[in-house]
Amino acid sequence: MACRISELVIDAEDPARLAAFWCDVLGYSELEREDDGSIHIGPPDAGSGGPTWMLPTLVVNAGRDPRPGKLPLHLDVSATDRDQDAELARLLALGAVHADVGQSGEESWHVLADPEGNEFCLLRTRVKPV
Questions:
Q1: pTM score above 0.90
Q2: Phi/psi at 71 (nearest 5 deg)?
Q3: 7-62: what CATH class?
Q4: Are 114 and 122 in contact (CB under 8 A)?
Q5: pLDDT in tens, 75-88
Q6: CATH of 75-123, one of 3.10.129.10, 1.10.287.130, 3.40.50.150, 3.10.180.10
């Protein structure tokens, strides 16, 4: 048996705000709050670790140690029930902003940042809901 990604961890200055943003983006719910301020979010009623390899839990940790330069990890998201333009409008309304990482403008994806500046991409390909 191989490993699977069960959790992705994001450091945040305001974990509650960032957890709420990602819950709205992904259709996740708050699963658990730890004494250290960390908030686990994931598919509703899934429990920490996600029910399948496709649905990892996001752990939003309290505290942030800013790093200069490109982030070593980012999330890619794909719409499930609308086209890319409609999903882009939804994400921007939730608080995402466009991010410039040197793209040419010819890409098939949009580079965005969440309310704390963490970059993520909205891909053109629509995926089936789980």
A1: no
A2: -70, 140
A3: alpha beta
A4: no
A5: 899 999 999 999 99
A6: 3.10.180.10
